[in-house]
Amino acid sequence: MADRTPEVIVALDVEKGDQARELVEGLVSAVDFFKVGSRLFTAEGPSMVKGLLTAGARIFLDLKFHDIPATVAGSVRAATGLGVQMMTLHTWGGVDMMRAAADEAAGAAASAGIERPLLVGVTVLTSLSRGDLEGLIPRDAEISDIALQLAGNAKEAGLDGVVASVHETPIIKQRFGPDFIVVTPGIRPSGAEVGDQKRVATPRVAAEAGSDYLVVGRPIIQALSPLEAAAAIKNELSDL
Ligand code: C5P
DSSP state, 187? Predict the structure, then answer.
């Protein structure tokens, strides 16, 4: 049995604010979070995010900040001011960049009198294979070694956790403790289309691996009934 029931984050991988609002209205009472990524954010901007927050959505802003520390700190301050509850940055930006981000989120939240958003670091994108990193990492290193090293840097810098595949989740939890958050994409209910994801897992397997938040996009947003699809996933999790 999983120690904690993971929360479900619906990826709002749509182009238009209207589509995002419609999904939020239909699902806000059924799931825990909504993920706004760079595509929707670039098209529709902060005002759309504010609208979704006003509609009662908890927002995971997935813009994967990666720049010099001062710039990322400024972006994190702006995202904290928007009122989002969780956001991503790239662990490849280094410990100083992540530390600046963590300090800024705490300071900005304190001055606004709001709760500090959770900061999670992207380690190695699941779209990258060992071959893509040839020449960039030691010959004998595996992707999971690099992901673990980057997760360690994230923890040292004061981030709340990382985004990782279900396959790396148990070892991250084992190494960095149960309170270090792991957010896992690549979730597919049994029988669902895999699409372009390579390393997938069912909600049950992800929960048993120790994942805290499951990111689910197409299996919910492209379902005939997104609400029924979301409810089925929540049911599967509550039965554990
Ligand atoms: O539709 P699907 O469930 O595959 O969507 C997964 C979401 O998680 C997408 O928004 C994708 O960009 C995101 N994601 C991912 N793998 C990562 C990081 C983010 O699939 N390593």
Answer: B
Indicate whether 49 pLDDT > 90.
yes
**Ligand 1 binding pocket mutation candidate from 42, 163, 215 (most atoms within 8 A of CB):** 215
Task: Give the number of the atom of ligand 1 that is nearest the alpha carbon of residue 216.
Answer: 3
- Report pLDDT digits (tens) over 55-79: 999 999 999 999 999 999 999 999 9
Q: Which of 174, 159, 2 is nearest to 65 (CA)?
A: 159
Active-site position among 64, 155, 198, 234? 64
Take atom 10 of ligand 1 and give the residue whose Cα is closest.
11
Q: What is the chain's mean pLDDT, rounded?
A: 94
Is 64 marked active-site?
yes
Q: At residue 43, what are phi and psi to the nearest 5 degrees?
A: -75, -40
Q: Residue 186: CB within 6 Å of ligand 1? A: yes
Beta bridge partners of 120: 88, 161
Q: Which atom of ligand 1 is nearest to the CA of 222?
A: 1
pTM for the model stands at 0.95
Q: Quick check: CB of 185 below 6 Å from ligand 1? A: yes
DSSP string, 88-137: EEEGGG-HHHHHHHHHHHHHHHHHHTSPPPEEEEE-S-TT--GGGGBTTB
Q: Does domain 7-238 have CATH number 3.40.50.920?
A: no
CA–CA separation, 201 vs 194, rounded Å?
10
